[in-house]
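Help needed: design a sequence for this.
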């Protein structure tokens, strides 16, 4: 690999304000992530208005620190600027997008908008530069649950997706219901370690059918079970819920690998930080004789290194984005042909 130039990446699609510098390789030279967890925790979830304002306050120092740690002090300090242009919260996306355009204009360097979902796919690549295609990627985040066949960089085929809630959203909702706070995924993961996963038999929706997912029934089943057994330990509820989600994710991902003849299974997105999912994917891939690509924790959750890497690849294979590029809160992953936008 080696996509070329030195890229500053900016990510502000949700509740992390992040900047990173990525060199050819792609090689992460610096990566700074300022989390807004403390800001949103008392509201039990991300408050879009507060997130946008916090991005405005945090982005200038975060970018300065990323450049500083990278020793990028030239004029211009980098060769290009890449930024998440969707999907995400519109107010948050606009902060990063405007900032990136202003820097690109001031430095007179190319500017490129990056799809956040493509960024998550590149996160795996930063950790496993030797990966081989085709690969099935299980992309599981707060807003998305998708099985994507990556036939090569930029060539994506959607194999399946959630019909209702995203996996991360289910974790967050169940955590809130159990009073475990925000962000929900890590809280459920932690408490589930002390619970009995067999304490409740929660549904595994669409388990025998196709590659799509559904998690809204599971969330309702958790609420019903707690109403019926209000004294049940939260750890048991969390453990039984978590194993139900992971069972479905792993079964469908294996089915996708089998159906496509992929050489490996790759995890991406915030839910890829889940300890049970990571373990079960490793075990399943070992059994099936395919590569398990489980990214480091830092590369699971939102960061700007993955955006810079995706932007670097986009710039090496196509034109820069026009400065008129807008933010798209529901941007879809550019699927199939891999032709640069
Ligand atoms: O990719 P990400 O950082 O942001 C989005 O693009 O959505 O994913 C955030 C999601 C949240 O729903 C969070 O609860 C979930 O990832 N998450 C986890 C864990 N860590 C983060 N879910 C389950 N187990 C975890 N350990
Ligand atoms: Zn994300």
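Sure. Designed sequence:
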């Amino acid at each position: 690999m080696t996509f070329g130039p030195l890229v500053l990446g900016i990510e502000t699609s949700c509740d992390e304000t992040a900047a990173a510098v990525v060199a050819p390789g792609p090689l992460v030279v610096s990566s700074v992530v300022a989390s807004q967890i403390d800001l949103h925790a008392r509201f039990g979830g991300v408050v879009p208005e507060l997130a946008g304002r916090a991005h405005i306050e945090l982005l200038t120092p975060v970018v300065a620190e990323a450049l500083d740690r990278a020793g990028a002090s030239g004029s211009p300090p980098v060769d290009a600027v890449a930024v998440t242009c969707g999907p995400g919260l519109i107010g948050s996306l606009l902060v990063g997008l405007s900032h990136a355009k202003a820097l690109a204009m001031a430095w007179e360097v190319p500017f490129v908008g990056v799809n956040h979902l493509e960024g998550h796919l590149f996160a795996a690549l930063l950790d496993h530069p030797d990966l081989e295609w085709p690969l099935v990627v299980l992309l599981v985040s707060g807003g998305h649950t998708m099985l994507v066949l990556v036939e090569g960089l930029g060539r994506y085929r959607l194999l399946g997706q959630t019909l209702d809630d995203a996996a991360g959203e289910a974790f967050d909702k169940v955590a809130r219901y159990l009073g475990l706070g925000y962000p929900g995924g890590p809280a459920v993961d932690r408490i589930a370690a002390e619970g009995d996963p067999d304490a409740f038999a929660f549904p595994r929706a669409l388990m025998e059918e196709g590659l799509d997912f559904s998690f809204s029934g599971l969330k309702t089943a958790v609420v019903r079970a707690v109403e019926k057994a209000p004294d049940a330990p939260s750890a048991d509820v969390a453990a039984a819920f978590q194993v139900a989600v992971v069972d479905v994710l792993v079964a469908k991902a294996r089915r996708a690998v089998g159906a496509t003849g992929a050489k490996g299974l790759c995890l991406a997105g915030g839910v890829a930080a889940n300890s049970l999912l990571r373990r079960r994917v490793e075990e399943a891939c070992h059994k099936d004789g395919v590569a398990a690509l489980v990214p480091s924790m830092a590369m699971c959750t939102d960061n700007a290194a993955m955006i810079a890497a995706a932007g670097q690849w986009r710039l090496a294979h196509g034109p820069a984005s026009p400065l008129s590029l807008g933010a798209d809160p529901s941007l879809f992953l550019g699927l199939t042909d891999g032709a640069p936008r």
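The beta strands are 7-11, 16-23, 27-35, 80-86, 111-115, 135-140, 145-152, 155-161, 264-268, 291-293.
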